[in-house]
Write a structure and sequence with these properties.
Largest sheet: 10 strands, mixed
Structural class: alpha/beta
Oligomer: single chain
Radius of gyration: 18 Å
Order of helices and strands: EHEHEHHEEHEEEHHEHEH
Distance between the termini: 39 Å
Number of strands: 10
Strand content: 15-25%
């Protein structure tokens, strides 16, 4: 059995892209845990030594899985919990884990490139290695062991997980330098964003009300990309252009296969 310190946990279905993540065996220095939420488990039994079948939604299933296997929480230093529609390779995953350690991050996510998106600030900023923030979304979050222990109960607060992300920085008592969008590593979100159902919206509102929270995205500074001198505009102008494009993309009916910024 491998003695890896990195863990990838994903709730997956028959169209999952997780086989991409482990295709390059020479790069895989993490354990992959698969929670199969539909009837496709036989397709994936040989993809990992950690495969189980449970029905539900992502964060709730992750909570139930770790509640059944509490020994895993102390086994790993970092836990990456991506959606199963994220296109990336083992090299990207390992680089991201290394960034978590290098920058002493407790909660972070890789940036999105050319992707369907909800939150504009998660799109890759070519001027930066990373940007410190107070909001990491549940699509591709990564937690240090300490941070996961602090936030794990939120995964079980409702069935959808909506509303919980706003709580995470408070629960880890962030110092504004331990949460980030990591632009040094970017991944592709391949499926269109689905609008929240009545249940999603109700659970988000109930969660925020319960803990007296308001979702407000902040940026607390950044680490510049060493290649940023090659960009032909200052970062504040770049951001102004990007924000205008984000607004336009959200307000326009676009028929392309992928909608995002790069």
């Amino acid at each position: 059995m491998n003695n890896h310190k990195y863990c990838v946990i994903s709730t997956v279905g028959r169209n999952s892209l997780h086989k991409q993540w482990i295709e390059d065996k020479t790069r895989v220095s993490f354990d992959l845990h698969l929670i199969v939420y539909d009837d496709s488990i036989e397709m994936f039994r040989n993809d990992s030594e950690y495969v189980c079948h449970m029905k539900g939604q992502k964060l709730w299933l992750t909570y139930q899985y770790l509640n059944l296997h509490p020994e895993y929480i102390n086994k790993y230093d970092y836990f990456f919990i991506p959606d199963d529609d994220i296109s990336m390779g083992a090299k990207d995953i390992m680089c991201f884990f290394e960034c978590m350690e290098k920058y002493t991050l407790r909660i972070a996510q890789p940036a999105l490139r050319c992707s369907y998106f909800t939150w504009g600030h998660v799109l890759r900023d070519n001027c930066c290695r990373l940007r410190y923030t107070n909001f990491v979304e549940m699509m591709v979050p990564c937690f240090s062991q300490e941070a996961l222990k602090a936030v794990l109960f939120t995964f079980n607060e409702n069935t959808t997980g909506w509303g919980t992300e706003t709580h995470w920085p408070l629960l880890i008592k962030t110092n504004n330098k331990d949460m980030a969008i990591v632009d040094e590593v970017s991944v592709l979100h391949t499926r269109p964003i689905q609008s929240g159902t009545t249940l999603h919206n109700r659970e988000a509102a109930d969660y925020l009300r319960k803990y007296n929270l308001v979702t407000h995205v902040e940026e607390y500074g950044f680490i510049p990309n060493n290649m940023s001198t090659m960009i032909l505009t200052e970062r504040h102008k770049y951001n102004s252009i990007k924000n205008t494009l984000v607004h336009w993309l959200k307000c326009t009916n676009i028929q392309e296969a992928f909608v995002g910024l790069d």
